[in-house]
Amino acid sequence: MALNTRMADEMALRNTRTLTIGVDLGGTSLRIAAYTPGTGILKVTTLRTRVDAGPLAVIDDMCAAIDRLLGEYRHDRAFAGVGIGSPGPLELPEGRLHHPPNLPGWDGFPMLQKLTERLQAPVILESDANAAVLAEYVLGLGNLLNIDSLCMLTLGTGVGNGIVLNGRIWHGAAGMGGEAGHMTIYPDGPLCGCGNHGCLEAYASATAILDKAHRLLASGKAPGLAQRKQRGALETALDLAEAAHDGDPDARTLYAETGKALGICLAGLINILNLPLYVIGGGVANSWELLAPSIFEELEKRSYVYALTAPDRPAAGRMPGGGTQVLPAKLGPEAGLLGACILPLYSSESTAIRA
What we know:
The chain is of the alpha/beta class. The chain has helices at residues 55-73, 111-119, 128-138, 141-145, 201-204, 206-218, 223-230, 237-245, 249-273, 288-302, 304-309, 335-342; strands spanning 18-25, 29-36, 40-48, 78-86, 90-91, 96-97, 123-127, 150-155, 159-165, 168-169, 277-281, 325-328. The strands form three sheets. The chain has a five-stranded mixed β-sheet with strand order 3-2-1-4-7, with helices on both faces. Helix 3 packs across helix 12 (335-342) and helix 8 crosses helix 9. The longest helix is centred in the C-terminal third of the chain and has 25 residues, at 249-273. It is globular and about 55 Å long. Residues 1-12 and 347-355 have low confidence and may be disordered.
């Protein structure tokens, strides 16, 4: 079943011996964790996502890993179920994927049905960004700032978006609410995996940042990056971030351009939603200090709501948390996996409480 828009006020988090399994399904890697509220994550299994082998092969890998973790940790614990964070677009409550840009060949795949049949156990399916925003709401910045509404962008293989409104995950009419990764930033920009041009995902995902670096290298205009590539030190977005930290001007420019795209998107979200908290998570968010200057420059220029409600601004005084906050995720890249782990700890009937 899909997580109901109302989260439970009686959570199994009260029972430190409750066991859950959380799954973070990504376009490149698949992470499966055993979790108890008393200990946190007990063990993580990481696998390559065999996208080229098709969805059933990935489900086989996922279920085999879940079975192994259950065999290792289920004894003398109450098993609450499996939580899955999946790339979207995801149709809920049916649990079908529709043209997920980072999972080619998965269009129309009934993931919830297949997992429930295979596991014969409770399965809660959410978008990966909804799992991440749930974790930040319950265990991270939402809890720290005592805020019940927040918006989160997750920057990984793609760009996800999750929203909590008044303590409830916002699903929209068909479970597809929160797809800001496919908001158009530049209409004539590069082609995105969704088929549109100029989406945020085409600028701010780890894949997009590395692609931009490779195009720059091909132009012959980035000698510093070329030297790193010759040494085999430019294989990931993290490598590019290290180059930027070391002062490489081209790497720093690439991250500044990424921050600008994020700032344009966030300005629109702030103007529309007027929430107290916007969180940037995922692996790319580890480079927050490279992104932040351009983000805030764009917010000041493009969002009059931000200009009025940022901390210490005229209209910020009565806002929860002291004004419109834009912050890196407290839980870091683990937010999605943690959120998947705590998904089964909610019933479907009432409002969430915090752990």
